[in-house]
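Lab notebook: predicted structure, single chain.

Context: the supervisor wants predicted structures on file for every construct in the current expression panel, including those that have not yet been purified. This is the next one on the list. No modifications to the sequence; it matches the entry in the shared construct table.
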Amino acid sequence: MSLVAVWTAEHRLHDPDGEVWLGVRVPGSEVPERGEVLRRALEEAGVEVHEPTPHGRESILAVHDQGMVSYLEDAYRGWVEAGYTENPGQNRVVPYVFPHPDAIAEVGFRLPASRGALAGVYCMDTATLIGPGTFAAAVAAVDCALTAADMVLNGADTAYAAVRPPGHHAGTTFFGGSCYLNNAAIAAQYLIDAGAGPVGIVDIDAHHGNGTQQIFYRRAEVSYASVHVDPDRGWFPHFLGRGDERGAGPGAGANLNLPLPPGTGDEGWVEAVKRAVEFTAGRNPEVVVVSLGVDPGAADPESPLRVSNVGFAEAGELLAGLGTPAILVQEGGYDLDSLGPDVMAILTPFRPRRLG
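Prediction complete. Output recorded below exactly as produced.
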């Protein structure tokens, strides 16, 4: 196999220890074992695995707001200092109140004094908990994605960032959906800043990448195409991901959402991936970034799309058929038994492809 991969053991630092869903603490699906499964799958397939190179904060701040990044870095320490691990006994940072725009419209936003209230300023849900190692793991995931980008900039044809936590739900000033920093978006911006544009992002995760869409919605040099379960059928992220969201300003027409009904299965899902690939090819990207989620899989607890391993293999053929250098960044995929095989089904079709 001709692709290279980037992976770090620092993903283990992030252990959300569950999530709060509809007010109830439940076991989470974005668990440390996901990272170990990915590593084993790569080793068994004979893929060359590299450690990431630290890249500092500049590339993160090219995408994310400084206030949000500073909050993520300090959130757990502040939570402990406020005494919340003792009273009420909450061992992870979780919001309980959110600053609704209309509630503060007449007076403007101000940061709250309470660390508990601060937890709801940047986070968009109660399911994305922060532990003592969350920020370090999120930065390490970014470093993996940027190291993969460096490999492509230096002549590699395909580089896969086997990361957790995932990233595509994180936007400029918000995070959520088990995502903290947007690995794929940061890699895309890094490529643009290096002169390797335009960039096409293809997102095949089961859920719409609302963060990636928000970051590039008014940008012409980065296109975004997403295949996902229809939010109007009750699926996360609920408020975004509809087909009429096409971009705005200079980015008008550069955004394509392909929402699918539950139970779609291989045929319909692969056809939607084909449409996303054709849209991306029409934008003439120099590099493609794939948000590689395999939670559309039939065994996955987080999606009803019912895609088989064969369907993922067909999607891999379509993505590889773009013929451009590619960076693939891991997003969802939560069934530990199918995670490795489904990821490898997508990765296997990639072969050497060089510009010029």
